[in-house]
Amino acid sequence: MAGLLYHLGRACSRHHWLVIACWVLAAVGLALIARGIGDKTSDDLTLPGTESTAAQDLLKSRLPHQAYGTNPLVLKAGDGRLTDSANKQAVDQTVSNLRKTDGVTSAINPLGSAGSAFLSQNERIAYVPVTLSISPADITKDEAQDILDAGAPARSAGMEVALGGYAGQQLSKPDTESSEAVGLAAAVIILLFAFGTATAMALPIVTAVLGLACTLAIIQLLGNVFDVPSVAPTLGTMIGLGVGIDYALFVVTRHKLQLKAGMEMQESIARATATAGGAVFFAGGTVVIALCSLAVANIPLVRNMGFASAVSVVIAVAAALTLLPALLGALGPRINSLRVQFGRTHPDDQQPHGWARWAKVIAKRPIPAATVGVVVLLALAIPVLNLELGQSDNGELPTDTTARQSYDLVSEGFGAGTNGPLLVSVQLGSAAKPDQKTSNSLDQQQQQLKASQQEIEQQAVAGGASTQQAKQEAEQQTQKQTQELATKRKEAAATDPRLTKLTDAISGTSGVKSVSPITLDAKGTAGVFTVISEHAPSSHQTANLVDRLRDDVIPGAIAGTDMQADVGGQTAAYIDLASRISEKLPLMIAVVVGLSFVVLMLAFRSLLVPLKAAVMNLLSVAAAYGIVTFIFQEGNGASLIGLDGPTPIVSFVPLMMFAILFGLSMDYEVFLLSQIQDHYKEERLPTKAVIDGLASTGRVITSAALIMVCVFTSFVLSGDPTVKQFGIGLAVAIAIDATLVRCVLVPAVMVMLGHRAWWLPGRLDRALPRLSIEGEEYFARRDAEAKVATPAGG
């Protein structure tokens, strides 16, 4: 690998303008193509084997118009009541507009007889349940905007208009531009301190930004191939900026050190690409493996989020190994121009004495240092014992989003539970039939119609041609009544004793506010109805209600019948997602830790080094989980990050955090241990190797970590609570990893292990393939050959 990267770096630096042009054209071209195709994301909540997915599948096949639920267009009167003549006219026109909108299959007028349940008691708030033929996975921003725009008559009449459901969520994705700007600004300042020149500072920024442009375009294009979660582009931005700048920082640092030592420009670029670039390739590969291993969980949402995030890492590595050498080649010796000095000395003139002194302190007292580090991490991790996975809802979005406005208006008029209705799907072995009383009444009406028909025919025969016109009018009236009776019979099928027993049992369940009439398919063997909780969709009470309905109420109500009922809908799907992730989290931890152990064992040819890394990374991740639990679930300091109070921890956040953090923490592990191993190989003095390794990498690792912490923290500015959780969690974990773990625990444990740190059983040593992260053996052989080829005194 070292030889390949060496020649790649040399070729890119020599043909720098061509490589730079290719990257610029790729970024612009991909962005234009993605913009033309459109932005499409979807939170695929399909989970094979769960009730929510079973309900969704039944509805898709038998009642497709009911499968995705409804999207409420909420209206609140500015003056008076919605039933006032002027307001009523505006509502009627809005409903008419909705029915004409593409993709709308039904829109129930809340002021009509069929929509009385959608008008609040004070008649000031109402919502139009809009059913779409477009699924949450397929709806575009423009289609969602058309639905909101249909409310123009109501808005002109002075009403508040807001759109909820998955259509409203499509229009309520908070922007991240301010977060990106803050993160980049912080990176600029840190890089100026690290490099001391504006030219060197610009290299990681340009590399990361161009790479990020390609990443976001690719993720957008992938959204048309498979379901890309709505948070994936933001997560890709966070990771892409963080690792993109960090990877470039490591390569540029190595290049500057080599130039300072007198190495020729082209050779330095090629060697920096092969050495630091080799570590970047290895570290990035570890992150990609960790993210792709999320597929083992067999959870589509998590799997697709992992794949989309992995794209940002792959592009960042590619940019560091091709675009960056090209930029270095184009810049040449000017990399040291535009010097910026902070304090009395320039960064290029400073020696890492501070890190060396710190390393000596740790090496002198490794046991107390390790003990303090472990105790602090365990203390930070204590809140994780109370960690509960849940879901967020639209009530946690910024108040200027239409989905949040819809949530607040619906809560005001109908209760918070109305924002997250549960869909109960029903499958019957035999067609639903009205109960005996209703059936007798309908039969009686049928007989009356038949008698009326016979009477009309008899009168027509007796009266002759003069009564033919009257006969035709009477037949038309009878035909109309027959159709109405058929409709009544179909609706009356909902009074089937099996269905009545089920709906009555659910209606009487504690925590249920209301149950809607059931809608049956044409055959009468499948149906759906909604259940409204008394509590918010994200509350524990609603989750407990779903469990109670599934475990006790529904099984008891359908016992002894040929009927199957499943609780579905988005709220229930998120509850199932949290349950499935809780089940899969131990497996995912084992898979990621196992893969990382194997990769590090191959890289460092040691058993204890990867074991130490696994344990320490688990401790740092647990500490990060604890802080996230403390801030979000328990609400401590929530107001400081723009939240109203405690917020449920979104179920997939800890799982994604683990994969990302375990991968990213390996970056610093690889860079630090590579240097320690190099020094150990040279002198075979384990303690001195630890001191020299930490001294030589301390500043660059700290700078890299600080950049990543600033980038992640900047996303707290996002209005999306899920993004806030990712931002805080990742920033805290990186800060812990770069301080307590990398600067205290790693050197302390490595000193205690001594020579044993690099122990590997002989049989295993012979069986494992030999890897060289930074190509030490390749360059040793290359330098030896060059020395032999150079004449003595030449």
Describe this structure in words.
The chain has 26 helices and eleven strands. It has 794 residues and is of the alpha+beta class. The protein folds into three domains: 460 residues, Multidrug efflux transporter AcrB transmembrane fold, CATH 1.20.1640.10; 107 residues, Ribosomal protein S10 (Alpha-Beta Plaits, 2-Layer Sandwich), CATH 3.30.70.600; 161 residues, no CATH class. Strand 8 and strand 9 form a beta hairpin. Helix 8 runs antiparallel to helix 9, helix 10 runs antiparallel to helix 11 and helix 11 packs across helix 22. It is elongated, with a radius of gyration of 33 Å. The two termini are 31 Å apart.
CATH hierarchy, class of the largest domain: Mainly Alpha
Number of helices, where a helix is a run of at least 4 consecutive DSSP H or I residues: 26
CATH superfamily of the largest domain: Multidrug efflux transporter AcrB transmembrane domain
Mean pLDDT: 84
Low-confidence stretches: none
Radius of gyration computed on alpha carbons: 33 Å
Principal-axes geometry comes out as: elongated
Mind summarizing the main beta sheet? 5 strands, antiparallel
Q: What structural class should be given to the helix and strand makeup?
A: alpha+beta
Which CATH architecture of the largest domain?
Up-down Bundle
Please tally the β strands and state the result: 11
Number of domains: 3
The name of the CATH topology of the largest domain is: Multidrug efflux transporter AcrB transmembrane fold
Give a nutshell description of this structure:
The chain has 794 residues and is an alpha+beta fold. The protein folds into 3 domains: 2-37 and 174-389 and 575-782, Multidrug efflux transporter AcrB transmembrane domain (Multidrug efflux transporter AcrB transmembrane fold, Up-down Bundle), CATH 1.20.1640.10; 65-171, Alpha-Beta Plaits; 414-574, no CATH class. It has helices spanning 2-14, 16-37, 51-62, 85-100, 141-149, 152-156, 165-170, 177-195, 198-222, 232-260, 265-292, 300-331, 353-364, 366-381, 402-414, 436-463, 468-492, 497-507, 540-558, 570-604, 608-633, 652-683, 686-714, 721-753, 762-767, 776-789, and strands at 71-76, 104-107, 125-132, 160-163, 389-390, 422-428, 512-515, 519-520, 526-533, 563-568, 649-650.
